[in-house]
Amino acid sequence: MFDTGPVLPPRPPAIVVALLAALQRLRQAVVGSIEPSDRGPRIGRMAAAFLWLDTVMERIARLAVRHAEGRLRPLRPRPAQADAPPRAPRPKPKLPRIALPRQFGWLARELERPDALIDAFAARLADPAFQSFLQAEPARFGRLLRPVCHAFGLTPPGPIREPAPNPTAKARAEPKPEPERERWSWPRRGDPETDALSPKIG
Length: 202
Description:
Strand content: under 5%
Number of strands: 0
Shape: globular
Helix content: 40-55%
C-alpha cells in the first residue's frame, strides 16, 4: 500500500542514521496498523501520519548532512509581530488536508504493542552522543523532533526541550493596572453629610 523503503539521503552522520532507523521502524508500524477493513477517518489519519513521518525523516537527514558539511546558515531572529510584513495568502490545496490529533501520545495509542519500538527510539534520543550533536542546532532539530516526541508520548531531550515559561518575567511584561482614582463631585443640596459640613450663611 505504501513504500516503506529508506528515504535517507547519502552521508548523514552515523548517530543520526541510528536515530532514523528507529524512527523508520515506527513508521513501518504505522503502515502495519492499517487494516483492510479500516474505513472512515482512521485510515486517512494513519496515512497522513505515515506521510508526515516520512517528511520528518527526510528533513532530519538532510539537515544533518548540511550541518556535517558546514552548509547551514545562522538563524535570523524573527521580527516582532508588529514589524513583520503581511504574508501573502496561501493557495488553497487541491486535496483537503487531514488535521492530525494534538493529544500527547496520540500516535502511540493508535499502534498495537508499540512499547519496544518507542523505547528504542527514546534510547537513541537519550544517547549522549546524539544529545551533544543536537547542541549544535537545537532550534532546527527541535522543530522537527518535538512533534514526533509528542505524538509518541515522549519528553524531548534536554537540548531541544522548550523552556518552561517564567512566571516572574511574564508578570513583569504584563502592564500593571493603574490605581483607581477617587472621583470628586460638587456636593448636592439635601445630602445630610455635606449639609452638616457646609457653612451656614445668615
